[in-house]
Amino acid sequence: MIKLFKKILYLINILILCSCTSSSDLEIKKVNFSSFNDLKADFKTLIINNQYANKIEAPYIDYYVPEKLGNLTKKWVEKRFETQNKNSTNTLKITILKANTLGFPLDSKAKIENILDNNASIRIEMYIKTYIELLNSNGAQLAYCDIEIYKGKELGENISLMERDYQIQEMTKSIFFSFDRLAVSKIKDVFKDYLPNS
Predict the structure, then answer these.
(1) pLDDT (average), residues 8-31
(2) Residue 130 gets which letter from DSSP?
(3) How many CB atoms sit inside 10 A of residue 190's CB?
(4) pLDDT at residue 129 tops 50
(5) Is residue 161 domain-resident?
(6) Best exposed site among 39, 74, 120, 185 by fewest CB in 10 Å?
(7) Mean local confidence (pLDDT), 65-84
(8) DSSP character for 106?
(9) Does the CA dihedral 61-67-71-77 come out positive or negative?
(10) Do 124 and 168 touch, CB atoms closer than 8 A?
(11) What band does 14 get if pLDDT is binned at 50, 70 and 90?
(12) Res. 19: pLDDT tops 80
């Protein structure tokens, strides 16, 4: 009876160990724009103006993360906006003011450059800020809005570098879909006179 009980406990432990997620089980998936529908608006020309910081020095860690927020924001603009009137003389201008990932060591003595290659604890902050304006043929503003979003998260020292990358990418996806919801809501409200069926 005792031998049977030990065997059952052994099997339960094996099952528990096998069911735990390991770093090799983590799949880093890119932000997918396929579910985003076009926002049709009364414009002919689309301008993307990049003004966000493009630095490779602390605390900016855009060069380290799986997908850069700046690149994703540009892709979002290209995917989301479509002209509804090819005869329009209006211009839709999107200025990307912020699209950055920042990293701050939680240990005040550590440097960000050193902790990116080891599993020390780190605070990740992500910012996206855009200014969207519709201009007529004379450059006068017909409508405008700004969209700003922030997310922050602390990643402890007890996770692997693979899991850290996974967590950062999940944060990226989360902030981006939150940004999209906020942007679409604001655009439909502010630009309602220049959108079909608004």
Answers:
(1) 57
(2) E
(3) 17
(4) yes
(5) yes
(6) 185
(7) 93
(8) S
(9) negative
(10) yes
(11) very low
(12) no
CB 179 within 8 Å of CB 149: yes
Backbone φ, ψ for residue 102 (5° rounding): -120, 145
* Packing angle, helices 69-80 and 161-190, rounded to 10: 40
- Is the residue at 130 inside a domain? yes
Q: What are the Cα distances from residue 34, in Å, to 26, 30, 58, 80, 173?
A: 22, 11, 33, 10, 13
Q: Does residue 34 lie within any of the structural domains? A: no
Unique residue bearing structure tokens 């060069």: 63
- In DSSP notation, 24-78 reads GG---PPP--TTPPPEEES-SEEEEEE-S----STTB-TTTSSS-HHHHHHHHHH
What's the pLDDT score for residue 9? 46
How confident is residue 115, by pLDDT bands cut at 50, 70 and 90?
A: low
**Which domain range does residue 44 map to?**
40-194
In three-state secondary structure terms, 96 is strand
| Predicted model pTM | 0.82
Beta bridge partners of 45: 91
The total number of structural domains in the chain stands at: 1
**Which residues are CB-contacts of 111 (< 8 A; sequence separation ≥ 6)?**
58, 105
Question: What percentage of the chain has pLDDT greater than the value 90?
Answer: 59
Report, as an integer, the average pLDDT of 77-99: 93
